[in-house]
Fold:
Amino acid sequence: MKHVLRLIFLGSIFLSLCIPAPSLAAPSQQKILIGIMPEMNVFRQKQRFKLLGEHLSKKSGVTVEFTILSRYGNIVERFTSEKMDGAFFGSFTGALAIQKLGVVPLARPVNLDGSSTYHGYLFTRKDSGIKSVGDMKNKKIAFVDKATTAGYIFPLYYLKENGVTDTSHFFRESFFAGSHDAAINAVLNKKADLGAAKHSIYDRERKRDPRVDRELTILAESPHVPSNGLCVRKDLPESIKSNLKTVLMNLHTDPEGKAVLQQFGALKFIETTANDYQSVFDLVKKSGIDITTYDYRNK
Structure:
């Protein structure tokens, strides 16, 4: 009897080694990688997109992973080299990606002020004595990045409209702060006389730091351009494109989606198309830039 039991025991061990147990894990979802522009401090940017990534993964049927770019000007190269599936492009990088990569715009957010666009501010300290373009000569200016509409293209356009065609010899010094909030803080902390940034980040900073309203003044505003929207590679499966777009555009009707929007800082998402970027192409042209040959890397 003991011999029989021993055989049964050894046989069960053998079977357990030879026959794999059924997996309890769900089949893995397809993953997509989406880039995010460094428009603000990287930690705030990660927090802003955290719930959105989780919600998109839950509702769209694909696992969404975000990667925050170190700067605006390497988006085209990184999009290709890292095999990104999409990105929340800024207006200029969106126009650039439409031109060079053929990306397809899906949806963009409606800001808390009810607009689905943003505009640029050119600003200074109230105690700087700068009130006109003439007063800006030989001053120090903080741009954001050569690949931003509000943080670089708009100031070039504004200066050109006011008779300044060579900014390299107009300012005493210029530098790229890397993000919009960094450009604002550079002027606030007297590291620059002038700065340029998008209005939505400027408004976030003025709510966070009362010194912005107390110490800074806005000198000029740019034309309106589309908010940072999600654009995807043209060969992404149509089912994934459709699901991502549907989830984004239904956020405001979903109880969980409303919490996502609150953290993201938007009222809802709306459809966006390549035609919405025409205002960017127009602004770029008026600033004297040929987008097909423009060197958008900071130097």
User: Anything to note?
Assistant: The first strand starts at residue 30 and ends at 36. The chain has a mean pLDDT of 88.
